[in-house]
Write the structure tokens for this entry.
Amino acid sequence: MGLDKWREEIDKIDTTMVELFSKRMRVAAKIAVAKKEKNLPVFDQQRESKVMTKVVDMAEEEFAMYIKMLYSTIFDLSKNYQAKLLDRSTRLTEALETALQEPKTDFSKKTVVACQGVEGSYASQAAEKLFPLGNMMHFESFESVFHAVEQGLCKYGVLPVENSSTGSVTEVYELMNRNQFYIARTLRLHIHHVLLTKAEVDTPTITEIVSHEQALGQCSEFLKQYPKAKLTVFENTASAAKYVAESDREDIAAISSVKCAKLYGLHVAKRNIQNNENNYTRFICISKNLEIPEGANRISLMLSVSHRPGALHDMLGKIVSMGLNLSKLESRPIPGKDFEFRFYFDIDGSVYQKDVQVLLADMQLSAEEFTFLGCYVEG
């Protein structure tokens, strides 16, 4: 047969497959009703494994792996459809319903905002962009920012979570796990690092360079010019600049910002010293209360899954079956558990969509641990 004839054959098979798939999904709907009556979960590991073994055994050896992949997708779609039909309420769905009905926060109004470091830090600059009329309170550590928000000293806190060159800020992720909070907004800040000195000194005479560890990492290529210089880690780039300004030494320099040069009366010895011109840091704005602004388009979650083969795949399948984009997936070891991990998800989606609320409820019921971190506008 020619190409057209073979395509006609494929078209007939596709018609049959669509009819059979639709029939299977209708039966899955009836199973969902039966599960609801008996208060059973959507996912049945034993049943799914049994069916998978059966269909793979039925397949010709040449197609066995393809059949396994096909049925993994079918299982994900079926579970997603059943979860939608069951529409089980959880603490999260109830909290979301309440938050969506509450008045939206006007971030342009005066409010108290916590950020780590002294005036001029990149966190402080991000906070000023997020809250033009905000009253900034500066704290020594990331942990202090969380505590300030938790105790009600500040309504919001601004923290860095990742950099486009050096990756995630590990300490903040660990604090995210230990503290109860929600992400209200985010901001990507373009970072231009400069080398600051007390005066116009001969830069080769510099014997010590101070800055935050992330900034030192982002400027590693530039720092190769100073192989003998001592690198000293500070809490943030602004405090490093302040230290240089208050020092009586002229052989010390700070990696910081142009703003800090102006704030602390320092000389800009070198500009744009970061490894990559496309250097951005992503900051999160945290809140004690769940706030979901209009236009929210990004969801952040933190969860762990059962320690069994395919558990993470099953969780990812729920997202894929909804047609949502997973924009970030990061894992962290769970303390006290060998080779078990907690996962951080960023999903492009909004809880203003009912289907997304159903997805989150299904993920919550399927996870070992589940924390909803927020739905916000990705800036």
Notes: The chain has a mean pLDDT of 91. The longest strand covers residues 182-190. The first helix runs from residue 3 to 37. Residues 13-86 form a domain with the Chorismate Mutase Domain, subunit A fold (CATH 1.20.59.10).
